[in-house]
Specification:
The chain is of the alpha/beta class and 404 residues long. It is 44% helix and 12% strand. α1 packs across α16, α4 packs parallel to α5 and α4 crosses α7.
């Protein structure tokens, strides 16, 4: 059996598929990944021996361009990604038995699977954007514009579907016609299918009952990481009390490039040292004091259990890793699903959602004071024991059963 995995997005979209590919291989199947060929993604796939075939432009070239992506840029990127999926997946899929697609709405992937006559799965790491009979798109997908004055939830989701079709419809149906397939009217619902998979932990994302679709929740797709921490990190950890880790992963943090100037003093105000993850935002130390260590790519699974708290953007992967480590969190959300992850962390009592205007030193220090309390730490450790670690096994066995 050979499975074709496809995504386009940040590391949080790529690493789970690498985890699934690794587990498929352990169960005797083959897997190939079509994804953006950013340097850190190729390093990740090389580390575990999963073949990566470049798909579309690199994410860094889009996210870290001279200007933030605009609405007009989205209309340029959408057809480019659709074309890339047809060009890449049709060739790769010829000797594959199933296709799993995720990341930025993967228009084109299901059409390729239909043309090849193989099973297709749309997988997501949260339910933001999946139609709901209870939540309007503006609540389920923060930042989504809706017609002014419209309150009917069903009509709002119909409008959302029209927006997706406006963005992708022409490119999708042009490519479908080229391979002999009829046009699709509702692009969004066609891509999602009737039974999308939710690769998220049920404790951290328990919203299945709010959806219109029959969602299959597998648990998060976690890639085990056995890499040792760098010597400088080990030495820093050994030199004092557990520090606070700060990192925003693949977030560019446009408009908040000075966040280190507020975060580092806020942590110091709580009597803690700092490990600062450089990330795509290029965070840097604000002075030469020895209580702050700046790091690049490190093993979060090994690190998070040894810090006092994790201050982060609320991405699915970071949230799950921190929760599994039993460490308190402060979430400063940036986009899409991140406010909802942060809200869930706060509801569980394992951290704080920083939900307000641009962070300040004083407000961040107050949030950290709550996160560092004995009550939150105890709750974080208790919840950690309930986080599932078998998500890739569940998903891989479902794929094997689907094509057996």
């Amino acid at each position: 059996m050979r499975v074709l995995l496809s995504t386009w997005g940040s590391r949080g979209d790529v690493e789970p598929l690498v985890a699934l590919a690794s587990r498929l291989r352990e169960l005797g199947a083959e897997a190939v990944l079509a994804a953006p060929a950013d340097e850190e993604f190729t390093a990740l796939t090389d580390r575990v021996g999963v073949p990566l075939v470049p798909l579309g432009p690199t994410v860094r070239s889009i996210v870290l361009g001279e200007r933030p992506p605009s609405a007009g840029a989205a209309f340029q990127l959408a057809p480019e990604l659709v074309a890339a999926r047809y060009d890449t997946l049709l060739k790769l899929g010829e000797d594959c038995d199933a296709l799993v697609a995720t990341g930025l709405i993967p228009v084109g992937a299901r059409s390729v699977a239909d043309k090849l006559g193989i099973p297709y799965v749309f997988a997501c790491f949260h339910t933001v954007g999946l139609p709901s009979p209870y939540l309007p798109p503006s609540a389920a997908r923060p930042g989504t514009p809706t017609p002014e004055g419209e309150k009917d939830v069903k009509k709002l989701w119909e409008y959302d579907a029209l927006r997706v079709s406006e963005l992708y419809g022409e490119a999708e149906n042009t490519h479908r016609a080229a391979i002999g397939l009829p046009p699709v009217n509702n692009i969004r619902d066609y891509v999602f299918g009737d039974r999308p998979w939710l690769a998220a932990d049920p404790i951290l994302w328990p919203w299945r009952s709010l959806l219109s679709l029959d969602v299959v929740q597998t648990g998060a797709w976690i890639l085990p990481d056995s890499r040792p921490l760098p010597d400088e990190v080990e030495a820093f950890l050994a030199a004092g009390d557990p520090p606070v880790y700060v990192g925003f992963g693949s977030m560019a943090l446009r408009g908040a490039t000075g966040i280190a100037e507020d975060v580092i003093p806020a942590i110091r105000a709580q009597g803690r040292r700092v490990i600062l993850g450089r990330g795509w935002a290029g965070l840097a130390a604000i002075d030469d004091r020895d209580d702050c260590l700046v790091v690049g790519e490190v093993n979060h699974q090994a690190l998070f259990g040894r810090v006092a708290a994790v201050l982060h953007h609320g991405g699915a992967g970071t949230t799950t890793t921190a929760s599994a480590a039993g460490v308190p969190q402060v979430v400063i959300p940036q986009i899409v699903d991140q406010p909802i992850w942060g809200r869930r962390i706060a509801d569980l009592g394992i951290g704080v959602l920083y939900d307000g205007p641009t962070p300040s030193m004083e407000s961040l220090s107050a949030a950290l004071s709550v996160a560092l309390s004995p009550e939150v730490r105890a709750r974080a450790k208790a919840v950690a024991g309930a986080i599932r670690t078998d998500g890739t096994t569940v998903a891989a066995k479902m794929l094997l059963d689907a094509v057996s």
